[in-house]
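Ticket reopened. Same input as before:
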Amino acid sequence: MKIEIWSDVACPWCYIGKRRFETALAAFPHRDSVEVQWRSYQLDPTLPEHYDGTELDYLSTRKGMAPAQVSQMFEHVAAQAKGEGLNYRFDAVVVANSFTAHRLIHLAAAHGQQDAAKERLLSDHFEHGQDIGSQDYLTALGLDLGLDADDLAELFSTDAYADDVRHDIAEARALGISGVPFFVIDRKFGLSGAQPAETFSAALEQAWQDSHPLVMVSAAAGSDAGAAGTDSAAGACGPDGCPV
Amino acid sequence: MKIEIWSDVACPWCYIGKRRFETALAAFPHRDSVEVQWRSYQLDPTLPEHYDGTELDYLSTRKGMAPAQVSQMFEHVAAQAKGEGLNYRFDAVVVANSFTAHRLIHLAAAHGQQDAAKERLLSDHFEHGQDIGSQDYLTALGLDLGLDADDLAELFSTDAYADDVRHDIAEARALGISGVPFFVIDRKFGLSGAQPAETFSAALEQAWQDSHPLVMVSAAAGSDAGAAGTDSAAGACGPDGCPV
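Engineering reply: fixed in the latest deploy. New output:
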């Protein structure tokens, strides 16, 4: 079973959704048969590499929201994050374009470190005030993840993995995704937003049943199945009784 | 190979189905590789702990069946049971809610006695007029099975294993099961009802083949396979003849 998660780094609900999804996955009996792939998405591709201002400034200015309203929103989201064990510090968030961070996630994926990269970027952005647009920070993160220094240098001197990021974004558009996080199971089931873990659990279960339907075995022709009644009602008790 | 059997205690076809399945399993060459797990199901979760009336009263009243029709059904089912060596005594059956009995089955499972618990409950209910809702009876049964007296006391003073019972019932719903007994092999094949032993045998065989497909060996490079022609058509006859 394959689960693709479209998500941005600069997306508070994406980290909360990641935790809730992880809770559901940890409890899913077939978790070892589940492959998770993080897909790139940018909520604001127009952001400059570096933005001089706080997240509150950014949202009030760019989105035309009243500062008080933004503060209230931060409080609400931080409370939700707290519920998942995350310590959001919106006052310390460094506003930055996430495009290069997404390229790093793709480089990490090529070395089996995609989830680790995604996790660190989200945590560092929302909990530790790191500048996810900074080459120094991204290089240090890449080295922490065990990535090759030359590969990291190449990431900043070329546009390596830029096509992969654009491809993910184009696929999101093709699937009709206009917000993140967005979870796609087997390219068949979609879940939008940081749903409760129970919803993810139910979706995992439904998708599993859907891809593994029971093959009904009925009595072979010529057997003495008739003795127990017709095939379809062969000695079974149901809500309406036990037909014979 | 894992076989899960959804079944209720108060389900005449479930005991008959158990015997027929056991007949098939005993004759199955790979029976030592088969794990059987009993899963809880309740045909009538609304039954009171104790019902003052006979099984005939219960079925006529609750299911709106004519007493004569119920009697006739009892006769037919008892005859089928007799064919499997079971001595059903519907006149002595004590109608009771099976929820606590299912909790006991789960407790027994935790001590490797699940099948023994299921067997005794079915036999005591249909052949020996025991009240499967009675704490005294269930305690005595548990002790017979070698369960710990403290564990049994806890079963009645708490709702231990209630979640396991509910989980089984929820899984049945997810699998589309609406009647019991229902046999699921490797979460892939389903059999509804007390099928004839031959049907269970065929299903066991089919599931075994399915989970143990032949590993196709192709000619190694440098072997003399070439003598029989190309690899793809190497000395084989098909629907279109026998290419050389």
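Confidence is low (pLDDT under 50) at residues 218-233 of chain B. The two ends of chain B are 41 Å apart (CA to CA). Please confirm and we'll close it.
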